[in-house]
Design a protein that fits this description.
Layout (H helix, E strand, L loop, with lengths): L2 H13 L12 H10 L5 H14 L3 H6 L2 H8 L5 H18 L8 H4 L7 H10 L10 H9 L8 H11 L5 H15 L23
Helix pairs in contact: 2-3, 2-6, 5-6, 9-10, 9-11
Bound molecules: iron/sulfur cluster (SF4).
Length: 208
């Protein structure tokens, strides 16, 4: 690891000693639903919506039987509600019918589910199935570039760079800490380098 990477790892662990995923869930299925809903939506809003959604349909079987219009009306406030409702119902249907009600545990199977891309599959692998994955969202991509850990807007390239730079045992906690730091300190505009607990101390900042 480079000195900057070590400093970033250590500083993030000091700022965020407790790692909990903010999306409320009680099973791999409920986390999958919450992650699908989280696209372009705040975690708080997702949690409000899932408390209603999971009361109506707590598992794949009941979710697949819920009318599409009912799902749409419950998740309406999350944005992109039509495509998200189709993804939720479609996932529930496949998981209930082909996987005996259990969320599949491989990248290949997860990425075939409706509405599930590589980032969502990575979250599931890292969070539920104890696998090694580094989900890269917009915050992580921005931070990796600003910290000089990657030089690309392509999330696949950023993911590969970060995986090479940090030991795989760190990937899970580091990705959650980077998202939290990105939300708290590192907006696209108006960041304050003199107030920043990382950029003011590392050598390779690439501020833009
Ligand atoms: S100084 Fe700006 S770019 Fe660097 S981490 Fe802080 S907020 Fe982000």
């Amino acid at each position: 690891m480079t000195d900057d990477a070590k400093f970033i790892l250590r500083t993030l662990a000091e700022i965020y000693p407790n790692i909990t995923i903010p999306l409320h869930h009680t099973s791999s299925f409920s986390l999958l639903m919450a992650v699908i809903l989280s696209a372009q939506c705040t975690d708080e809003q997702v949690n409000r919506v899932t408390s209603i959604l999971f009361s109506a349909a707590p598992d794949p079987q009941t979710m697949k039987d819920l009318p599409l219009e009912k799902i749409e009306s419950i998740i309406h406030s999350c944005g992109l509600f039509r495509s998200k409702a189709r993804a939720i119902k479609g996932c529930a249907q496949i998981i209930a019918d082909y996987y005996d009600g259990k969320v599949p545990e491989t990248f290949e199977e997860l990425e075939k589910l409706p509405g599930v891309g590589h980032k969502t599959a990575s979250v599931m692998i890292a969070q539920c199935f104890n696998g090694y994955a580094f989900p890269v969202d917009t915050h992580i991509r921005r931070l990796a570039n600003r910290w000089g850990l990657a030089h690309s807007q392509n999330v696949v390239i950023v993911e590969n760079n970060l995986k090479k730079l940090f030991p795989k045992e760190e990937w899970h906690d580091l990705h959650i800490r980077m998202i939290r730091f990105g939300r708290e300190y590192c907006p696209a505009k108006n960041h304050r380098i003199d107030h920043c607990p990382i950029c003011q101390f590392i050598s390779k900042t690439c501020i833009n």
